[in-house]
Design a protein that fits this description.
- This protein has 520 residues and is of the alpha/beta class.
- It has 15 helices and 25 strands.
- The strands form six sheets. The protein has a six-stranded mixed sheet with strand order 4-3-2-1-13-14, covered by helices on one side. A six-stranded mixed sheet has the order 6-7-9-10-12-11, with helices on one face.
- A hairpin with a 2-residue loop joins strand 21 and strand 22.
- Helix 12 packs across helix 15.
- The radius of gyration is 24 Å and the shape is globular.
Length: 520
């Protein structure tokens, strides 16, 4: 697709003036909240109370509630809908503890008009999605998944929704990424079909029913949203999620809000409760969009937290504190996670975390795990291991990220990882499924040798499946070579949960090093 198709909303002025029949619709939207019920830090993890009091935190549902209500009040008497593009589930201890109950409670308080199913709504199987469908006070939809063979979901999921707003019918269609069978846990009874084909069919159905204003509320990622905007006739706007893409007209590096594909505006509002999007659409009498403007709104400390919701969250947080003291396993010895060790050589904590990552996705054809040493923040003493200790080691709420790169790229990644050993940089690679030798006395870029994968020399031309965390996959700690990796998926389960489950499955856990990293 040519970049010339894309233009900012500010440049869109398809009519010089408004006819009497013009209709204005305000679309307020979020996506990929990922259980960030409490405020978040600048790194998107849960923010502590002290930092929040100091004004250093963002988002949280108490701020989302405040901002959406403020917009409703400002737009009183106008046409307003509030949409969620999916993935309320998974990403914090609120979800781990309550398995969707808190997300459903808060969404009902906010009062959405419609929500798309996200892939992580299937993280606890069909039952997890059924809980959302039963508990939500608003319609939840997805048009390209057939649940008619699922005894748990049959009859509960909508293909389309028609909202009556200001005397007009607003049609909502939706699609969910077809690779959800690989990224989450729907049952075999849930059948996925092509996003574009199904959206076109649903648009046609709504058009035949006399609906002339149609919005796609998708959970497919920005690249697919762009393709949908270009390919599906009859769409007036695309409100998306899944790729956690930042759209903004003020923040450097963000996509323009909205980004136009022909005459169709496409928007998204990043993730983790940090932003609320506000898209203003003007339609002519024939239902054509004549203007599309707006922006995302940063929910920083200037947005007050609703006091009632804040109090409710504090009440809900009590059992989470108890969870932190929950014993998940026993360790036979100290699991060494000291930064002086894990940023310079093989360490037992690095082996634990990398082994846990690789074990979790080994049935997906993944052969190699890479964990940045700087992501390991503590050691764990011998004896009982609590969830709180695991969270202290892995506090960032990083998620598992799977992707494919060549052997040549793997070697380049290892060279990056050891390029600042003398500085104790956090990029040092802890690995599983592979081994390598590093010579710190050599020039940076020429330090790696003897790279083995599964006991065989690495093939520079071969494509390997890799698992890491989302920070590394997106270029953190200098791993820029992974940014354009093939088949990348950054939104797997939380790394702390994966590690805790691995320790429990291997209890009593015996920490070890085995020579997978040799330092000359």
């Amino acid at each position: 697709m040519s970049l010339r198709l894309f233009t900012s909303a500010a440049a869109l002025a398809l009519t010089a003036g408004m006819a009497q029949a013009d209709y204005t619709l305000h679309v307020i939207h979020i996506n990929d909240l990922h259980s960030r019920i409490e405020p978040i830090s600048k790194y998107d993890g849960t923010c502590d109370a002290e930092s929040n009091a100091e004004g250093k935190c963002f988002g949280g549902v108490a701020r989302v509630y405040t901002k959406i209500n403020e917009l409703r009040e400002q737009l009183a008497g106008e046409n307003v809908i509030v949409l969620d593009a999916g993935d309320q589930y998974q990403g914090s201890l609120m979800y781990t503890t309550y398995k969707g109950d808190v997300e459903i409670e808060m969404m009902n308080k906010i009062g959405f008009d419609a929500m798309a199913v996200g892939n992580h709504e299937f993280d606890d199987g069909d039952e997890g999605l059924a809980k959302l469908l039963d508990g939500a006070s608003f319609p939840v939809l997805s048009g390209n998944i057939d649940v008619s063979s699922s005894n748990i979901l049959v009859g509960k999921l909508k293909d389309t929704v028609i909202l009556e707003v200001g005397g007009e019918k607003i049609g909502i269609v939706s699609a969910l990424a077809t690779d959800t069978v690989e990224t989450s846990s729907p049952s075999a009874a849930v059948i996925f079909s092509d996003e574009i084909e199904n959206l076109q069919q649903d648009v046609a159905t709504l058009t035949d029913a006399g609906v002339s204003k149609i919005i796609a509320l998708n959970h497919v990622g920005v690249t697919k949203d762009m393709a949908i905007a270009e390919a599906v006739d009859g769409l007036d706007a695309v409100v998306g999620g899944h790729s956690h893409t930042k759209f903004s007209n003020t923040e450097e590096g963000a996509m323009a809000y909205p980004t136009m594909v022909g005459d169709v505006p496409v928007v998204q509002a990043y993730a983790y409760s940090k932003y609320v999007g506000h898209l203003t659409l003007v339609f002519d009498d024939a239902g054509n969009v004549t203007s599309a403007t707006g922006d995302t709104i940063l929910l920083d400390a200037s947005v007050a937290e609703d006091e009632a919701i804040k109090a409710r969250i504090a009440e809900l947080a009590g059992p989470i504190e108890e969870m932190k003291t929950r014993v998940v396993a026993d360790a036979g010895d100290v699991i060494v996670g000291d930064r002086d060790v894990c940023r310079a050589m093989e360490c037992s904590m690095g082996n634990l975390v990398a082994d846990a990552m690789l074990d979790r996705v080994k049935d997906q054809g993944v052969e190699i795990a890479i964990q940045n040493g700087g992501g390991l923040r503590a050691s764990i003493d011998a004896g009982e291991v609590t969830m709180g200790e695991v969270l202290t080691v892995l506090p960032f709420q990083n998620t598992l990220s799977t992707f494919q790169v060549t052997g040549e790229t793997i070697v380049a990644a290892l060279e990056n990882g050891v390029s600042q050993m003398e500085e104790g940089a956090g990029r040092f690679p802890q690995v599983a499924g592979m081994s390598f030798t590093v010579d710190p006395s050599a020039e940076a870029g020429s330090r790696i040798s003897d790279v083995m994968v599964g006991g065989a020399p690495i093939d520079l031309g071969k494509t390997y499946g890799v698992v890491s965390n989302n920070y590394v996959r997106n270029g953190g700690d200098g791993y820029k070579m992974f940014v354009d990796a093939m088949n990348a998926y950054d939104f797997g389960p939380d790394l702390a949960d994966v590690t805790a489950e691995y320790i429990a499955a291997n209890a009593p856990y015996t920490p070890y090093t085995d020579g997978r990293i040799t330092v000359k």
